[in-house]
């Protein structure tokens, strides 16, 4: 397995994978799959902040993607990110999600970031919840029935993991360099 930075050439595969999850799953509360151009804009937004946007290849084929994005746009949140991980059908259960999430964690720690959140659509999403727990995330709450998709109410599970020293010390210079690009 290879985990590497996503490139523009990966965006059609990223868009197709995300689109399948939008249409058939509850990990995203979007109803309409965004076109490749919108996924490209999201990729540029993440990478424009200096944050990781990664793809996994398994046996030379696209197997999934993961990204760390702004948790919230206000400056006070600048040391906290939210992860997203999507694994292709047929690659599930083969360590792709763990490889992507582990790489995201390592990259964000190297940037001096201090917290990572997971906002998991659907409390029945046992695979994502288990993946996050295995990577050191803790449950911090559930928003009950906040989404409506596929004819039913859907929960959102909130999980969190400290990065590096977490809240054990003041932020360091690498985090500040990222923070200066982050809006107001």
Give an account of the 3D structure.
The chain is an alpha+beta fold. Helix content is 32%, strand content 32%. The chain contains five helices and seven strands. Strand 4, helix 3 and strand 5 form a beta-alpha-beta unit. It is globular and about 45 Å long. The N and C termini lie far apart (39 Å).
Summary keywords:
single chain, 184 residues, alpha+beta, seven-stranded mixed beta sheet, 7 strands
**Helix and strand composition category:** alpha+beta
Major sheet details: 7 strands, mixed
Number of helices: 5
Give the strand order of the largest sheet, numbering strands 1, 2, ... along the chain: 1-2-3-4-5-7-6
Parts with pLDDT < 50 across at least 5 consecutive residues: none
Q: Helix share of residues?
A: 25-40%
Average pLDDT, rounded to a whole number, is: 93
Structural Rg = 16 Å
Summarize the structure.
32% of the residues lie in helices and 32% in strands.
How do the helices and strands line up, and which of them pair or pack?
Layout (H helix, E strand, L loop, with lengths): L1 E4 L5 H14 L11 H13 L4 E6 L2 E10 L9 E8 L8 H15 L4 E7 L4 H9 L3 E12 L2 E11 L10 H7 L5
Parallel strand pairs: 4-5
Antiparallel strand pairs: 1-2, 2-3, 3-4, 5-7, 6-7
Helix pairs in contact: 1-2
């Amino acid at each position: 397995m290879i985990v590497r930075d996503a490139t523009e050439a990966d965006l059609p595969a990223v868009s197709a994978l995300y689109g399948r999850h939008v249409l058939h799953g509850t990990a995203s509360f979007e109803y309409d799959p965004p076109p490749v151009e919108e996924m490209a804009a999201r990729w540029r937004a993440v990478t424009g902040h200096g944050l990781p946007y990664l793809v996994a290849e398994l046996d030379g084929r696209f197997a999934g993607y993961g990204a760390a994005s702004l948790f919230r746009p206000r400056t006070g949140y600048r040391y906290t990110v939210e992860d997203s991980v999507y694994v292709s059908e047929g690659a599930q259960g083969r360590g792709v999600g763990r490889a992507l999430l582990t790489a995201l964690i390592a990259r964000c720690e190297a940037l001096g970031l201090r917290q990572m959140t997971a906002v998991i659509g659907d409390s029945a999403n046992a695979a994502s919840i288990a993946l996050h727990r295995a990577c050191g995330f803790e449950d911090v709450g559930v928003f009950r029935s906040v989404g409506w998709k596929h004819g039913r109410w859907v929960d959102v599970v909130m999980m969190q993991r400290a990065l590096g020293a977490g809240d054990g010390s003041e932020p360091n210079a690498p985090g500040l360099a990222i923070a200066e690009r982050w809006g107001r």
